[in-house]
Each structure stands twice: as C-alpha cells, then as structure tokens.
Amino acid sequence: MLKEITAEEAPIRDAVVNEDGIDFTLIELFFFAYRDFTSDPDQMLAEYGFGRAHHRVLHFVNRRPGLTVAELLDVLKITKQSLARVLKQLLDTGHIMQLQGPRDRRQRELYPTARGRDLALALSRPQSRRIHDALTEVDGEARKSVEQFLKAMVNPELRAQIDADPSHRGADDEE
Amino acid sequence: MLKEITAEEAPIRDAVVNEDGIDFTLIELFFFAYRDFTSDPDQMLAEYGFGRAHHRVLHFVNRRPGLTVAELLDVLKITKQSLARVLKQLLDTGHIMQLQGPRDRRQRELYPTARGRDLALALSRPQSRRIHDALTEVDGEARKSVEQFLKAMVNPELRAQIDADPSHRGADDEE
DNA sequence: AGAATGCGTCAATAGTGCTGACTTAATTCT
DNA sequence: AGAATTAAGTCAGCACTATTGACGCATTCT
Questions:
Q1: What is the pTM of this model?
Q2: Which of B72, B85, B137, B158 has the most beta carbons within 10 angstroms of its beta carbon?
C-alpha cells in the first residue's frame, strides 16, 4: 500500500514534469539563459563599481538620447528613488549628462557622453555576441521566431513602447 | 553648425542602432521579456513574504526532489549564505523538508511537501501560460527554435546540468 | 587519528528595489 | 495674478538578494 500520511509534511519524491501542464523546461531555460546573458556585463560593471541598474540606464539613454527622467522611469518601471542613486553616479562619472528641456525647463533631457556611449557599447558587445552565436546554432528562421516570441512575452500595454523604438530591422544583414 | 566640443562631456544626440554591430533589439526585448516573465510569480510571492529566490529554490527542489544542499548551490550558482535564509524560511513554513542522506549522513536531501509542490505549481502556472500564449502568436516550429535558442544562450559548461533534468532521473535507487 | 567534507551559522557589506514625505522651480489652470 | 499641478531632486527608513570570511559540528575518508 501507499503511504497514508495525509499531513502536508510528507516528502514528495517524484519530480514535477511538463506533464503537469506546465512548461517547466522553458521556464527553467529562460532562467538559465537570462542569468548567463547578464553575467558578462555584470563582471565589467563591477570594475566601475556599477551594477546592473547602471547598465539599464545607460542602455536606454543611449537608445533614446534626450529622454526625460520621467520617461526613463516609465520605461524601467522603477521609482524615482531607485533611479536617483544610479543616475547620480552616472552623471558624476561623466557617462551621462543632462540638458534642460527646451520647451519645459523643468525637464532634464538625458544624453550619453562619448564615455557613456563607449561603455554602453562595450557592455552590450558580449551580450550581442552571445545572441548571435546562439542564433547560428539554431536552424532556419530562428531570429524572427525568437524576436516574435520575446515580444509576445512582454505585457501587451508595454509593446507599443518597444515598437516606438527608433531602431528597427538590421542586425540580420549587418555584421 | 555642429558643435566642435571634443571633450567627453559633450552630449551625443543620435541614438545607438543595431548598425553599430550590436543587436540592441534583442538585448532590449530579452530584458523586457524576462522582467514581465518574473512579474506574475513575484506578486504571488509577496503574499507569503517570499521573494524570487524562494521561487527558484522551490522550483529546483520540485524538479529534482532529493537533491542535496551542495547540488542546489551548484545549480543556482549562489553561495551557501545566500541560500541559508531562503531555505530556512521554506523549511519553517513547511514548503520543503530535509531528509538525512542515506549513504552520507552529513548530506541533507531536499524534498517538497504537498504544500511546497502546490506553491511551485501555482507560481509556474502564469509563467507557463505566458510562454504558451507567446508561442501561439509565433508561426511554425517556434517552440523548438526558442528552446534551442535559450539553451544555446546558456554557458556551455552548464548545459549538461540542464539536459540531465527532464524525467530520466530517480530510477536508480529507491524502493 | 587526522584531514577533508557537508552543512549550519555569525558578522559585515553591497546593490537594487520599495514607500512616504518634503523642497524647488516651472508650467498650467482659473 | 494667484492657485494648483507637474518635473525633478532629496531625505529617511526598510526589504530582499547577494557577497566574503570565519567558525563549529558531525561524518566520512585516508
């Protein structure tokens, strides 16, 4: 007979599998993939005394030069206080600079400096290489599928924000 | 006229684009996708006073019941001290239990309880649904491509570990 | 017996995120 | 013009995850 212990304290000895109706394989792979994806820039950032948050700010300031603090907060979905420390450090180290908004002088438009641009590119280079290498291991129209998939993983109300992005197409025929 | 300021303090007004040889589009999508991917379980976890680390521990204990503390540390790539608090809470709340290792009594084999199994499934459900929905939005053999891609994104030395987990496990000992 | 291993724990620190509240300056609304 | 609102900066305090280094205990290996 099977054990009759009904208490919740009994150990379960069988592994959960995808048959439970949940795609554990992809869930797990997504975790591993993202962890390793961020590991390269994380190591570089440590040399500057920076963290992953600095990378994200640097990334979006380079992607959308001139965005305001409020816009940046909206993209990152963090609070002003979380951004404050990180942004201040990037300003102090000359990676980012602020210009007063032309129409609304309360606003601060954020721009990368040459140093900030260089760092952003350096941080993204290993990530891009990892992606590129991974795609070449996959057959067929992998890049298109992966891009569609990742976009579909994002909350619908945020996709407009992504599409509004200045850069589109390319990277396929570029190298 | 364009500015002639050569110093690194000058603002760069043009956005980085994929033509710089870097696949910013996928880098960015990966960030957004992973953030939203983790947001559903994060909200649930907050109700228990848990964080994302609890989810990861719970996940792997459910995926590989009976794994030892050392094995768990190896999979998660964190330190013993980082695991300690999280694991203790999961033990205290009856989501996980420990059994003394049968061959080596120093070891602690980790097993989910029914409660722990339930929580793991509940946390993964929205993630799995998100993945499933995203895949149906993509045409063709998307799942295969995505799985291959994600696996290829993982550091090579860790891929063996991943492949070892599906269901061909646990048939070597035990009653 | 002595060395090494598996685990738990203590102390201190860093990075990222949160809430709430308050100030300043500039813009908008009435 | 005066009031209300908005953009940004800042202060204080807290939570979670992660780090390094060190020590103790039990068990296993040599």
A1: 0.89
A2: B72
**Strand D contact at CB of residue B81, distance < 7 A:** yes
Task: Tell me the mean pLDDT in the region B152-172.
Answer: 68
Q: Search chain B and give the residue with CA nearest A155.
A: B36
What pLDDT, on a 0 to 100 scale, did the predictor assign at position A165? 55
How far is the C-alpha of A39 from the C-alpha of A45, rounded, in Å? Answer: 10
SS3 category, B68 = strand
Residue carrying the six token digits 């040399």: A47
Residues found in chain B: 175
DSSP letter string, A5-19: --STTSPP-SPP-GG
Instruction: Tell me the DSSP string of B100-147.
Output: E-SS-TT-EEEEE-HHHHHHHHHHHHHHHHHHHHHHHHS-SSHHHHHH
C-alpha pair distances (Å), B111 with each of A100, B1, B75, B98: 58, 69, 16, 6
Chain A CB within 8 Å of residue B115 CB: yes
